[in-house]
Design brief:
The structure holds two protein chains of two kinds.
Chain A lengths: L13 H21 L11 E2 L3 E2 L5 E5 L5 E3 L2 E2 L2 H12 L8 E6 L5 H13 L3 E5 L1 E2 L5
Parallel strand pairs in A: 1-8, 3-6, 6-7
Antiparallel strand pairs in A: 3-4, 4-5
Helix pairs in contact in A: 2-3
Chain B lengths: L14 H18 L5 E5 L17 E6 L2 E4 L2 E2 L2 H12 L9 E6 L5 H13 L3 E4 L11
Parallel strand pairs in B: 2-5, 5-6
Antiparallel strand pairs in B: 2-3, 3-4
Helix pairs in contact in B: 2-3
Classes of the chains: A alpha/beta, B alpha/beta.
């Protein structure tokens, strides 16, 4: 007598797909957050005749405590030119934009060596500034 | 015969909830995406050491101190700086002649520096920074 085999049906629950997608999304959000510098406090300087800043290869920030950050991570002034050089190495002209976010109260001995280092690394400097507010 | 009534409340399929959450999340992510912001491009030539300059090829020197601007040793109010620089740069067509050396005192703030460099660039000058040399001497 031939015994009929019991068939096992293995279905992937479709509900789990949403959960997987959700977790993947959280993973990429955290990854993007690590390279973001939104958490660094700084007060932009004001200026007139500003244009929309082009996409950046790197962001250099001097925060309210006059501490230096490259792409959201603390770095020393001496290391900046080398680190930027590594980031900009293979990029063609026009794609070497470096956003410079300097706190408006930072003094010359803090920001001038940074500008010099970006220039030395071959970066195309874009000062991130805020448009001057209209007088009320 | 008893007619069976259809239930009025129909529960939506649970599998759709995650899809809705996913799409909502993408929507909020796109909304929260960082805008590049506004800014100003600036080209600063690389500094070269031991640069020999002939007296004829003397560049304009702008010294900055908190609230003050000095052009070639002469104090100039900020609102007159543009006209002063335009007159000094008039007739200078070559890039090397339009170089303006910016020298900042240690207490010069970034806001003041941005204001003055904007005026220099608007007047047709090419900014070059003159940094103060710092030297560390170790004493045994």
């Amino acid at each position: 007598m031939k015994l009929p085999r019991k068939k096992f049906e293995a279905n992937i629950p479709s509900v789990a797909m949403g959960d997987i997608a959700f977790l993947l999304l959280i993973f990429f959000v955290i990854l993007a957050r690590a390279q973001n510098d939104d958490h660094i406090p700084w007060q932009p300087a004001n200026a007139e005749d500003l244009t929309q800043a082009p996409a950046t290869a790197a962001t250099v920030t001097i925060d309210t405590d006059f501490k230096l950050h490259l792409n959201g991570r603390p770095i020393s002034t001496g290391e900046l030119a080398g680190a930027l050089g590594a980031i900009l190495a293979d990029r063609p002209a026009g794609g070497r934009t470096v956003h410079l976010k300097v706190d408006r109260e930072a003094t010359a001995p803090t920001f001038e060596p940074i500008i010099e280092a970006v220039s030395l690394a071959g970066g195309e400097i874009v000062h991130i500034l805020e448009p001057e507010s209209e007088p009320q | 015969m008893k007619i069976q009534r259809r239930p009025l409340l129909v529960e939506p399929p649970a599998s759709a909830a995650t899809d809705i959450a996913f799409i909502l999340m993408i929507f909020f992510l796109v909304c929260a995406s960082v805008q590049p912001g506004t800014g100003r491009e600036q080209t600063i030539p690389r500094s070269e050491e031991d640069e020999e300059r002939s007296p004829q090829n003397r560049n304009i020197e702008v010294s900055l101190a908190p609230g003050a601007v000095v052009v070639d040793g002469e104090p100039v109010p900020t609102h007159r700086l543009g006209r002063k620089l335009e007159s000094l740069l008039a007739g200078k067509l070559a890039d090397e002649d339009r170089i303006v050396i910016v020298k900042s005192s240690p207490r010069t703030q970034y806001q003041h520096w941005v204001d003055v460099t904007a005026i220099i660039e608007k007047a047709g000058g090419i900014i070059t920074l003159q940094l103060e040399e710092t030297e560390t001497i170790s004493v045994d």
